[in-house]
Amino acid sequence: MEKRFSISDLNGSFTLHNGVKMPYLGLGTYQADNEQEVVEAVKKAIEIGYRHIDTAAIYQNEEGVGKGLRESKVDRSELFVVSKVWNNDQGYESTIKAFEQSLERLGLDYLDLYLIHWPVRGKYTETWKALEYLYNQKRIRAIGVSNFLQHHLEDILEDCTVVPMVNQMEFHPHVVQQDLIDFCSAYAIQYESWSPFMQGEVFKLEICNELAKKYAKSVAQVILRYNLQKGIVAIPKSVHAERIKSNADIFDFELSKEDIAYLDSLENGKRTGPDPDNFDF
């Protein structure tokens, strides 16, 4: 795999096709509560040097994320804040309303990235038009999708005026989907991972533990480095200060091409989350 990008340190980023720089390592907040837990996690991450914070309406913690952002005292322009429109709110007018509600909960006047959370059949193309409108109004610096397979993306690409900038997908050694990564790359759609640790299952894989010993790193660090070297943005979720710090300690080693290829070869299609072609929420 030929590297076409630079991985330097926690301040590093990948550049989206509209020129916006997206930090390639961020903090995920899924299942972090809306009280002090998420506030402290966001503050600690920013203190360590993270500038990318990912949330979603369905996480029900946007208020807490916003409070953490404000209490961090870091200038808003330095932060990259992401949220997502939930399935029940999809459709043109309802998406615009949901976006305004997310902004209000976060206490922000714009988002750096807004995503369609899931490809709700019969709705996501209209939802995309709403995102295009908000983007053209300069309310969002970048727009994208989450959990979109190739045929979902093809539906969007058929009549969009703005090509999605990001596709956030389940990604780990059991669900690599290289064909989808390549498709996104062909359209300059930045790939991003959720559940990089397979909801903890990755720590049980013998090969991952062997690689951790080989590189004198933790399994989590090896997996996050794997993401970045494949050009994939990673947003590991944690509310523990030491883990948040440890997840950022991945810039003093590099996986070999052979080890990346071996991790890719573990793909078996076993998802930890729902199938984007078969979900009922």
TrEMBL record:
It holds the Pfam family Aldo_ket_red. The keyword Oxidoreductase applies. Residues 25-267 form the NADP-dependent oxidoreductase domain. Gene3D superfamilies: NADP-dependent oxidoreductase domain. Keywords: NADP, Oxidoreductase. It comes from the Bacteria. The keyword Ribosomal protein does not apply. InterPro entries: AKR, Aldo/ket_reductase_CS, NAD(P)_OxRdtase_dom_sf, NADP_OxRdtase_dom. Belongs to the aldo/keto reductase family. This is Aldo/keto reductase. It comes from Maribacter sedimenticola. The lineage of its organism: Bacteria, Pseudomonadati, Bacteroidota, Flavobacteriia, Flavobacteriales.
